[in-house]
Design goal:
Elements lengths: L8 E4 L4 E4 L7 H13 L5 H11 L5 H14 L1 E3 L5 H14 L7 H12 L6 H8 L8 E4 L6 H17 L2 E8 L3 H10 L4 E7 L2 E6 L2 H4 L4 H14 L5 E7 L8 E5 L18 H10 L2 E2 L2 E5 L4 E3 L2 E3 L3 E5 L4 E7 L4 H13 L5 E6 H6 L6 E5 L5 H9 L5
Parallel strand pairs: 15-16, 16-17
Antiparallel strand pairs: 1-2, 3-4, 5-7, 5-8, 6-7, 8-9, 10-11, 11-14, 12-13, 14-15
Length: 391
C-alpha cells in the first residue's frame, strides 16, 4: 500500500470535504512507459529500476510519480539473500580488512571480497551491491506479471490513494443494503471494532471507530481501515463516509465513497451464494411469489456477543418480514456451534431450515424450524412464511 507521503488528495474548504486523487485517460501513455521499464529490467537492482521508471514517467504530474512507482514495486517480485548469512559474510569481509587497515591496495580489497563471496566484481558499485545485496536498494527484479495492464495500474493507484486517506480516519461509517455477510467478515479480518445499527428497512449502518477516536489517533488502525476498503469495494449497494483529520487539531473533513466511484481491487469478489442449497432456493422462488419478495443477506442479528447474517429475508406486501437461515451440510462441530448461536438470537420472525437429522440431534430451537431432507421445497416453505403474517 501507499504511504502517507505518497498520497495525493483534493480538499474543498467550502464543503469541508476531501477526495482522493484519481488518474485520467491522458495519463495512460505515461503509465505505459513506466510499465515497460518494469517489464524490461529483469535482473536489475531495485534502485536502478526505480530511477529508470522516474525518467520514463517524466511528464506525469510530479506528485503522482512516487505513488505510481510504489504500486509497480508492489506488483513486481524481487530476489535478495534472506536469513543471517549475508550480514555475517559482510561482517567477515570487514573483519578481514580491518586487520590490514589502512587498506591502500585495491588488489588486496578485491581478495578479501572474493575470499568470502567467491567473486569480486571489477566495478566499485557492483562490489557495494554484492556486499549489501540484502538491503532493499540492491534487491534484484526477478519478474513482473505479464498480465498486469495499464488499467490494472490505474485501478490500483485510484484504490491506493483512497486507502491512504483512510490512514487519517477517526471514524468510518458504511451503510449497506447487500452483501452484509461479506462486510461483517472482512471487518473482522481487518480487526476493526464495529457496531451495527439498522438505518432504514433493508439498510444497515456499520460504524467503525475504536482506539483511534476513543484514545488517540493510531496509524495502525488507519491501515486496518485501508485493508477493509479493498474488500468493501467488491460488495454491492454501499456508501462509505469517513471523518479525515489531516493534522492534529484540525477540523475533520468528510470523505465519501460509493460503488459509483468505480474503485476496484484484486480481492476476490464475494460469491452471491455460499452453497447450492441457497442458489437453488433463490432460483426456484424467483424475485417474488405469492406476495413475498426474497432478499439475499438482508439483515444482521445479534447472537449474544456474536453477529449472524442470515441467508435471506422474505418481505410480504403487507410489511411482514421473515428472516430465513439455512443450516446445511457441515461437520458435527460446526453444526453444534451453529445451533448454539441460533439459540442466542432474539428475533421474533426467524425461520430456521435444517436437515431433519440435524434438527433432532441438537434439540429444540426457540424459533420456527423448517425441516428438509436434501433440498428445501417451495410448497413446504410458503405455509411457514404465511404463519408469520398477522390475521
Amino acid at each position: 500500500m501507499l504511504t502517507k507521503r505518497q498520497r495525493v488528495y483534493h480538499w474543498n474548504r467550502r464543503s469541508s470535504s476531501i477526495s482522493s486523487d484519481r488518474l485520467a485517460d491522458e495519463d495512460r501513455p505515461h503509465l505505459l512507459r513506466g510499465l515497460k521499464v518494469y517489464r524490461s529490467r529483469t535482473g536489475e537492482r531495485l534502485g536502478r529500476v526505480r530511477d529508470a521508471a522516474r525518467a520514463a514517467l517524466d511528464g506525469l504530474r510530479p506528485d503522482r510519480i512516487e505513488a505510481v512507482i510504489q504500486i509497480l514495486d508492489d506488483a513486481a517480485a524481487y530476489d535478495w539473500p534472506r536469513g543471517r548469512r549475508q550480514p555475517e559474510r559482510r561482517v567477515k569481509v570487514f573483519e578481514s580488512a580491518a586487520a590490514s587497515h589502512p587498506l591502500l591496495d585495491q588488489g588486496a580489497a578485491d581478495a578479501f571480497v572474493a575470499d568470502v563471496f567467491g567473486e569480486s566484481p571489477p566495478r566499485l558499485d557492483d562490489r557495494v551491491a554484492l556486499l549489501y545485496a540484502d538491503y532493499p536498494e540492491f534487491h534484484r527484479l526477478r519478474s513482473f506479471p505479464a498480465g498486469y495492464t495499464v488499467s490494472d495500474l490505474r485501478a490500483d493507484y485510484d484504490l491506493g490513494q483512497a486507502q491512504a486517506l483512510l490512514y487519517s480516519a477517526l471514524r468510518v461509517t458504511v451503510e449497506a443494503g447487500a452483501d452484509l455477510g461479506h462486510i461483517v467478515r472482512y471487518s473482522r479480518l481487518a480487526r476493526l471494532l464495529c457496531r451495527i445499527e439498522r438505518a432504514t428497512a433493508g439498510v444497515y449502518r456499520f460504524v467503525f471507530d475504536g482506539p483511534n477516536s476513543v484514545l488517540r489517533h493510531t496509524h495502525a488502525y488507519g491501515v486496518d481501515f485501508a485493508r477493509f476498503l479493498a474488500a468493501l469495494v467488491q460488495a454491492r449497494d454501499w456508501r462509505l463516509t469517513a471523518e479525515i483529520v489531516l493534522r492534529k487539531g484540525w477540523h475533520p473533513l468528510s470523505f465519501t465513497l460509493t460503488p459509483a466511484d468505480g474503485l476496484r481491487s484484486r480481492v476476490a469478489a464475494p460469491a452471491l451464494f455460499d452453497t447450492t442449497l441457497e442458489s437453488s432456493l433463490a432460483d426456484k422462488f424467483g424475485p417474488e411469489r405469492d406476495g413475498w419478495r426474497l432478499r439475499r443477506e438482508g439483515a444482521v442479528l445479534e447472537a449474544g456477543d456474536a453477529l449472524l447474517v442470515p441467508d435471506f429475508v422474505f418481505t410480504h406486501a403487507d410489511g411482514t418480514e421473515v428472516i430465513f437461515e439455512i443450516v446445511g451440510y457441515w461437520t458435527p462441530e460446526y453444526l453444534a456451534e451453529k445451533f448454539k448461536k441460533l439459540g442466542r438470537v432474539r428475533a421474533p420472525n426467524l425461520l430456521v431450515a435444517a436437515r431433519e437429522a440435524s434438527a433432532l440431534e441438537h434439540g429444540p430451537l426457540p424459533h420456527a424450524v423448517l425441516p428438509f431432507k436434501t433440498r428445501i421445497l417451495i410448497r413446504d416453505l410458503l405455509p411457514r412464511l404465511e404463519a408469520f403474517r398477522r390475521p
